[in-house]
């Protein structure tokens, strides 16, 4: 049910946008009909790459249940990663047939080898996007050790990631200068990167950039978590 609710939520904003754009002139050479395949793919890929573990970490820290990980030889990071990854695997098993159909429909007319290559790269980018998204969300969640009212940070993170990640609007609507900046930020590689790969908007250098952000965020998490735990305290009511 969570999967289908996520897909439904992913269609609400694009549907409203399409209704508005249907009465407007094309922007950046993109027509309303051209946006429909994009948002359909976003609805399928988004549940596989997005991560909201920041909310889970905040709940654990606020309730004091995170103490269980501080007194037992269990890595908090690995535990949450395994939990979130298991959900994504279930989502992938459910959505894989639809993604394959969408790929075949969009790639028809191309050679079989090209189609297979795109499929392989697509699932590779889905895996990397999930890791980048997970690390970013985990890093944001660690700030709950310092802030009592963390709901505002969660909301800001959700808005920023979905907007700059290309969920609300494709990058064709963004100015060229902002696209050049975003290309080297983690946001394109957190959500809709696989969608752009399927649509033929893939550059090999993006693999390097995405892995760089995945590793960098992981290193920051390692340092910040040690500082957070050293300052953490919780008193039961």
Describe this structure in words.
The chain has 237 residues and is mostly helical. It has ten helices and no strands. Helix 2 packs antiparallel against helix 5 and helix 5 packs antiparallel against helix 6. The chain is elongated and about 60 Å long. The two termini are 34 Å apart. About 2% of the residues have low confidence.
Key terms:
10 helices, mainly alpha, 237 residues
Blueprint of the fold:
Elements: H1 2-21, H2 32-49, H3 53-63, H4 67-70, H5 76-107, H6 112-142, H7 151-164, H8 176-182, H9 193-198, H10 205-231
Helix pairs in contact: 1-2, 2-5, 3-6, 5-6, 6-10
What fraction strand?
Answer: under 5%
Q: Encode the helix/strand succession as letters.
A: HHHHHHHHHH
Q: What is the number of helices?
A: 10
Radius of gyration: 19 Å
What separation lies between the terminal Cα atoms?
34 Å
Number of domains: 1
Shape: elongated
List how many beta strands DSSP finds.
0
Describe this structure in a few short sentences:
The chain has 237 residues and is an all-alpha fold. It is built from 10 helices and no strands. The longest helix has 32 residues, at 76-107.
């Amino acid at each position: 049910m969570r999967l289908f609710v996520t897909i439904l939520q992913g269609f609400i904003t694009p549907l409203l946008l399409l209704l508005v754009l249907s009465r407007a002139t094309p922007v950046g050479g993109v027509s309303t009909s051209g946006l429909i395949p994009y948002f359909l793919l976003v609805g399928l890929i988004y549940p596989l790459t997005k991560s909201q573990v920041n909310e889970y970490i905040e709940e654990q820290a606020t309730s004091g249940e995170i103490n269980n990980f501080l007194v037992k030889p269990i890595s908090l990071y690995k535990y949450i990663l395994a939990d979130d990854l298991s959900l994504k695997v279930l989502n992938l098993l459910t959505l894989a047939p639809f993604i394959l159909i969408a790929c075949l429909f969009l790639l028809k007319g191309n050679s079989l080898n090209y189609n297979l290559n795109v499929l392989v790269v697509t699932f590779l980018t889905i895996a990397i996007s999930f890791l980048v998204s997970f690390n970013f969300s985990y890093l944001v969640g660690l700030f709950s050790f310092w802030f009592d009212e963390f709901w505002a940070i969660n909301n800001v993170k959700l808005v920023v990631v979905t907007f700059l990640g290309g969920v609300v609007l494709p990058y064709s609507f963004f100015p060229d200068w902002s696209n050049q900046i975003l290309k080297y930020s983690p946001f394109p590689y957190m959500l809709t990167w696989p969608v752009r790969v399927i649509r033929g908007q893939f550059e090999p250098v993006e693999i390097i950039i995405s892995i760089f952000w995945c590793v960098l965020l992981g290193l920051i998490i390692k340092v910040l978590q040690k500082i957070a735990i050293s300052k953490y305290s919780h008193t039961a009511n």
